């Protein structure tokens, strides 16, 4: 793999992982609540992440796209693509708001600060970052990924090794977890939950992945970066899911489960983990507000910076609803948009394969 492939892989992982994943909150609701069967659901998501990342990055590289709108128009046509773009932008803004709430919850749980203080801090960081150029934004969100990767792997693997709960106790605790809801009802099984997790996350990662792929001239390097990033995401999901299940008896009604696991190892590790969480919340928040603001103004322009600041401040007010509530409501609805994207990407992939076989 070359430099461009690694950059795509790391940025893809950074934007998708964000606060909900790294906190353990998403994984708890989408997978761990189904007990051991949730591991199979995480494998479903892993395979989808790799396939979707490969194809999105490849299409964007071929088009040399500088916006996710170009890729959407390629997948859906101009009129339908515009509709999908508007709906997607609306829900991406909701994810950005959830990240501001996540920053508040993380600092409140670890340091006892008022949730509003953490949300204000994150809002200021987002506004400052969006005043940079596109390449600078991508470099920043890619740089924080290795730190979180090491932290998540170390904490979850140690937590699995030191788990003291019996399988019966863990299953009983997992049954008390409020699994994710979709269209007003609990998702009934792990397979559908795995599909929905991939669908809403690919909707989250799609705009930034499309921009990064467009900066890469080599189609193969772009596709490889998307594939490796997707597989990396899948591996993290599986490990974190097992780690949460192994300690389920200690994690009920906890908003930031990974902080509890870190605290059980050493207080200083919990502080490092909280900083890592803030970094990942930051990377996703930047990606979401970037994509939303780019819907109304060209990046790096004065209007873009002004709108970014306005949207972030409004999002700060909306974020006071609460992190867990936002994850449980905004994310599943974004999953509907993601399902539409998955179908369109699958059709595009089959069409490309058919064209290649015909030309041979």
UniProtKB/TrEMBL annotation:
InterPro entries assigned to the protein according to its UniProt record, in alphabetical order: YkvI-like (IPR038728)
Keywords, alphabetical: Membrane, Transmembrane, Transmembrane helix
Membrane spanning residue stretches: 34-59, 80-101, 113-133, 140-161, 195-215, 222-245, 265-292, 304-323, 329-350
Name recorded for this polypeptide: Putative membrane protein YkvI
Organism: Thiopseudomonas denitrificans
């Amino acid at each position: 793999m070359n430099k461009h492939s690694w950059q795509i892989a790391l940025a893809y992982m950074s934007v998708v992982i964000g606060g909900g994943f790294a906190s353990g909150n998403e994984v708890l609701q989408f997978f761990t609540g189904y007990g051991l069967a949730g591991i199979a659901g995480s494998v479903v998501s892993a395979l989808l992440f790799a396939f979707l990342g490969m194809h999105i990055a490849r299409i964007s590289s071929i088009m040399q796209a500088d916006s996710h709108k170009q890729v959407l128009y390629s997948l859906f046509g101009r009129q339908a693509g515009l509709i999908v773009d508007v709906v997607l932008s609306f829900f991406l803004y909701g994810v950005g708001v959830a990240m501001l709430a996540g920053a508040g919850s993380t600092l409140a749980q670890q340091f006892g600060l008022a949730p509003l203080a953490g949300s204000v801090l994150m809002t200021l960081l987002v506004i400052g970052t969006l005043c940079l150029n596109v390449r600078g934004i991508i470099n920043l969100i890619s740089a924080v990924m290795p730190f979180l990767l090491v932290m998540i792997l170390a904490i979850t693997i140690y937590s699995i090794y030191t788990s003291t709960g019996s399988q019966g106790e863990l299953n009983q605790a997992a049954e008390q977890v409020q699994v994710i809801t979709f269209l007003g009802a609990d998702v009934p099984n792990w397979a559908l939950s795995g599909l929905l997790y991939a669908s809403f996350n690919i909707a989250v990662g799609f705009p930034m992945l499309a921009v990064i792929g467009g900066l890469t001239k080599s189609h193969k390097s772009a596709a490889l970066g998307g594939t490796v990033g997707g597989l990396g995401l899948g591996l993290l999901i599986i490990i974190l899911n097992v780690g949460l299940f192994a300690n389920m008896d200690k994690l009920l009604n906890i908003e930031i489960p990974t902080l509890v696991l870190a605290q059980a190892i050493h207080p200083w590790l919990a502080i490092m983990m909280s900083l890592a969480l803030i970094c990942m919340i930051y990377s996703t928040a930047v990606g979401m507000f970037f994509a939303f603001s780019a819907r109304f103004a060209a990046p790096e322009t004065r209007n873009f910076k002004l709108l970014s600041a306005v949207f972030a401040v409004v999002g700060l007010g909306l974020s006071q609803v609460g992190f867990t509530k936002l994850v449980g409501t905004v994310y599943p609805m974004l999953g509907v948009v993601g399902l539409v994207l998955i179908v369109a990407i699958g059709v595009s992939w089959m069409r490309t394969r058919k064209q290649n076989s015909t030309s041979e």
